[in-house]
Write a structure and sequence with these properties.
It contains 27 helices and 17 strands. It binds a DNA duplex (12 and 16 nucleotides) through helix 11, helix 13, strand 10, helix 20 and helix 21.
Length: 668
DNA sequence: TGTCCCGGCGCG
DNA sequence: AAAGCGCGCCGGGACA
């Protein structure tokens, strides 16, 4: 009757109506168990609202389904700080339990997170995990009792099941807990035997195996993320409500112009219709083709590059650019954000720990890691992330984290020195690459734009003040000061594009495209960069070799990513693997750094010290709220913690700078 | 009505 | 033939 492909023990059942001795037996049994898998059947999927109807547990060779009204008998069990709780999608169940006042101390072992450390490219849903690593399958709850959706809520389905076949409900409710328990032990075994490379093998946190990485980093991190999700961030909903009609009207106005220009009703959101307009009717030349997807039919692209390219010769292109900008902000951010707020105006994102292959977080429902930057946003959406009266927002972000970690990974002393001097990295790179004084590059960056419109004498005065001797050097190079400044400025932009690009494995063709030069010139520039930083060049080579030999790319803390394609016979697959080998190490190590900072900040107890709460992580930025009078203290604490995430310093200092204000927009 | 894929685009 | 990493969400359109 269990719907399983394996034998398993019968399911005990407990409700508030059960006899006293049965309740007592269960309380004693759970109190005596070290590891307990736990799962909830809930009224729905909204983590700040929905509540448990049933909960199920599995431990040793037992399994049980319990009605939600029994939760309070187990207060002492939940309060045991030494318990190991085992869950699938741990944060969700913990939210649901918190909604009825239940909090579980002890360790939160999420099997999805465990699975993601070993099988980055596979799905991490419980059913898949069980099938894949244990060969266990069982009948699906929803297939048996009805689909949860718009027509019927999770609660409806469970109520129906209670009525139609209570015994089956009891069995099925405990299936997930049983599968969770089984996969935990198998995954633990696999993690313990998975040795890894870490910079912290012989110093804290002592990471030798993936189990070390899980138990010392990922497991405590789950709880930190849960606290952030639980707190949520306050949204200025009235601000959004005020912007919404205006935004909508602006979009409609642009749509009218588009219709007028086309001469017929065209939907500016429809790529097929736009392709027809531009390439069939206007007979314009495509810049590039789309990927073609499953069918493989490649069509001319109507992306931003195309519109930008034609904005002067085709009025339609300009209108569409405006339309896309407005409708993106309206649909995704104004409407999207408003609809996900709780009644108190706070929004509770999910910080997903088991998604990104590099070890980064992802954020969803809503994604708070892609809120527009102020310069691209006429509605100032970051200004809509606010604090309560008397409170302040603190935002602290790393400066050039990935670049610094590249210098660390490569042990590139010249680049490290650029950071040690506190220089702008791209100006420093340009200075070393093109053998030009650092001050000339910074001056060029500042003045190149206005050089032509400035009075010659004035220009010399300003430039000489910033970089003494610059006019002489310009003369020596045989060009005017203005031209020399533009040259220095273009050196910086070269260095910036190459610096970022090489981390991603960018080729000369794309670089040439971005810099507006020939492929030959691009190759030349890359060579100059590689010659300037031989250790970086060597690092790129060794990262690829290591991945070829071990099959993996490793981050600073020892997270690994399997890269089988690096041995592929297919050229492009192999090249992709080589790009990943480099990038995963850098991006993943940056993720490690932010993670450690978050763990340390949590352990320090800023919440108790200052009533300070971590709200957001945007890869290299952390956002907090605290009472106004604590803002300055919090800024200092956070900067210090972010700058020193490890128990030993790296070759390159990490720089993090905090700002504050009453909103996220102000705090940057 | 629901589900999937796609092109496009927001962020780091 | 084409070749930049990592995400999530929107609306359109195809299909069941």
């Amino acid at each position: 009757m269990t719907g399983w492909n394996i034998d398993l023990p019968g399911t005990m059942y407990l409700s508030g109506d059960s006899p006293e001795n049965e309740k007592q037996w269960m309380v004693n049994a759970l109190a005596g168990a070290q590891h307990i898998a736990i799962d909830t059947e809930t009224t729905g999927l909204i983590k700040w609202k929905d509540i448990p109807l049933y909960w199920s547990v599995a431990w040793d060779n037992y399994r049980a389904t319990l009605r939600a009204d029994t939760l309070y008998y187990f207060t002492n069990v939940f309060a045991d700080p030494e318990k190991d709780w085992i869950l699938a999608n741990a944060k969700y169940d913990m939210h649901i339990l918190a909604n009825v006042g239940i909090s579980l101390l002890g360790r939160w072992n999420c099997v999805q997170v465990m699975h993601s450390l070993l099988y980055e490219d596979k799905p991490h849903k419980l059913k898949y995990i069980c099938q894949e690593i244990l060969g266990w399958t069982w009948a699906d709850f929803q297939d048996t009792f009805g689909k949860i959706g718009k027509k019927q809520s999770a609660e409806d389905v469970i109520r129906k099941a209670e009525y139609s076949d209570m015994q089956l409900l009891i069995e099925y409710a405990a299936n997930d807990a049983w599968g969770t328990k089984g996969s935990f032990w198998e995954l633990k075994k696999q993690l313990e035997s998975a040795y890894t490379y870490s910079l912290f093998q012989n110093i804290p946190p002592y990471i030798d195996t993936l189990w070390d990485f899980f138990s010392k980093v990922e497991r405590p991190y789950t709880k930190v993320l849960w606290k952030m999700e639980r707190r949520g961030i306050l949204i200025d909903v009235p601000h959004l409500e005020r912007s919404e009609p205006t935004a909508r009207k602006e979009i409609i106005a642009v749509e009218k112009e588009i219709t007028k220009l086309a001469g017929y009703n065209i939907n500016p959101r429809s790529t097929p219709q736009l392709q027809k307009y531009f390439f069939d009717e206007q007979e314009m030349t495509p810049l590039k083709m789309t990927k073609g997807g499953k069918s493989g039919v490649r069509k001319p692209s109507v992306d931003e590059k195309f519109l930008e390219y034609h904005k002067n010769d085709s009025p339609m292109a300009g209108l569409l650019m405006t339309h896309r900008e407005l409708s993106k902000l309206h649909g995704t951010y104004i409407i999207g954000l408003r609809d996900l707020c709780d009644p108190s105006g706070r929004v509770h994102t999910s910080f997903n720990q088991d998604v990104a292959r590099t070890g980064r977080l992802s954020s969803s429902e809503p994604n708070l890691q892609n809120i527009p930057r102020p310069e691209n946003d006429k509605w100032n959406l970051r200004g809509a992330f606010i604090t309560m009266p008397g409170w302040g927002m603190v935002a602290c972000d790393y400066s050039q984290l990935e670049m610094r970690l590249l210098a660390v990974a490569a042990a590139e002393q010249d680049m490290a020195d650029v950071f040690n001097r506190g220089w702008d990295i791209h100006c420093g790179n340009a200075s070393l690459m093109y053998n030009v004084p650092y001050e000339d590059v910074t001056t060029g960056k500042k003045l190149a734009k206005d050089a032509d419109s400035m009075d010659g004498v004035e220009l010399i005065g300003v430039a000489e003040e910033k970089s003494p001797g610059i006019s002489q050097r310009a003369q020596a190079s045989g060009s005017s000061l203005a031209a020399y400044l533009r040259l220095c400025s273009s050196h910086r932009s070269d260095a910036k594009n190459i610096g970022f690009g090489l981390n991603y494995g960018m080729g000369p063709k794309k670089l040439a495209n971005d810099l507006g030069c020939t492929k030959q010139e691009a190759i030349q520039k890359i060579d100059t960069y590689k010659a300037t930083y031989p250790a970086v060049t060597n690092f790129f080579k060794e990262a690829v070799e290591e991945a070829r030999e071990t099959g993996y790319s490793f981050t600073i803390l020892g997270r690994r990513r399997n890269l089988p394609q690096i041995l592929s016979n297919n050229r492009s697959d192999r090249a992709a693997g080589e790009r990943l080998a480099v990038n995963t190490q850098i991006q993943g190590s940056a993720a490690d750094v932010t993670r450690m900072a978050q763990l340390n900040i949590d352990a320090l107890g800023l919440d108790r010290m200052y009533n300070c709460h971590m709200l957001l992580q945007i890869h290299d930025e952390l956002v907090f709220e605290c009472p106004q009078e604590c803002v300055e203290d919090v800024k200092l604490e956070v900067e210090e913690m972010m700058q020193h995430p490890f128990c030993k310093d790296l070759l390159v200092p990490l720089d993090a700078e905090a700002g504050s204000g009453v909103s996220w927009g102000e705090a940057k």
